[in-house]
Amino acid sequence: MLGSGLTYRGTASVTKSGSRCLPWDNPAITHKLNNAWRSDALKLGLGGHNFCRNPDGDVGPWCHVYKNMRLTWELCDVPKCSKPAILTTSGPRAPTNTNNKATCGQRLDNTLNHPVFRMFGGRESDITEQPWQAVINVFQRRHKQHFYRCGGVLIDSCWILTAAHCFEENEKVENLEVILGRTFRKMNSSSEQIFGVEKYWIHKKFESETFDNDIALLKLKTDIGICAVNSPEVYPVCLPERGLVLPDWTECEISGYGKTTEFSAEYSERVKRGHVRLWPNERCVPDVLSGRTVTSNMLCCGRHPRPG
Q1: How many CB atoms lie within 10 A of CB 248?
Q2: 13-29 residue pLDDT tens
Q3: Class of the domain covering 1-83
Q4: CATH class held by domain 124-220
Q5: In the chain, where do the E strands start and end?
Q6: Which residue intervals define the domain Peptidase S1 in the entry (predicted)?
Q7: In principle, which of 106, 146, 179, 208 could form an S-S bond with 137, CB 3.0–4.6 Å?
């Protein structure tokens, strides 16, 4: 945040006391001066979200909250920047992760509230268990509708991380669609948020034969400066710190709408969630992996339990 945060358009939504901000379009604040119904709301950064803003020139970004059953307001816990960063690259600038628990990685664990359906490659789940999960669809003119292409994860309000192999050569950006907040891949939901794609970037060194550098970024399209709005069904995942190395046999969580088996013709209709472990290097060789090659840019995982 620079200065008093008049131009702050981040996603912090917790006050200095730890209270969760109310959305600017909450019916409880319709009588307040600063809300999403102001004629200049978009210019001030106000809308259907609960992100901290400074629309009235206060000492810093703030938001409406409930304290002791009373509607009030509080300043937000938004750190100040020492000076503007100088960009020296023409590539995409995805958000820098700070692992701020107020803005990433939060979810409602429904393990005890939903029946568990065991299946190969994971169990059927609910989107609130992995609210960062995204659906990436592609419009096919021949059929005049969107079809599922790949999954992805929300890493910031307007950014989706996915795989490079999901895109065909010269894929038209106007044909891409991203859906967040959906438990069932094809079924509309009151919690879903749908976006077009402004631009996408495939890793310059992606190898389609070996899948080395199989990573891509999508920037969601918006006219108001923010895209995805945090909710129990939509929330960004936390990114790892630069240089992080996880020990062998670390248990990792995976999610998506992937196929039930490797050679299945159909994708899962419902989002799934599973766990794998990171394998040591001696297991990640072609002799063990049926000729497949694992490079230093990949994670090598399996479902076998840790030995001993």
Answers
A1: 13
A2: 999 999 999 999 888 88
A3: mainly beta
A4: mainly beta
A5: 62-67, 70-75, 118-119, 122-124, 133-140, 145-156, 159-162, 176-180, 193-202, 216-220, 251-256, 272-278, 301-302
A6: 119-308
A7: 146
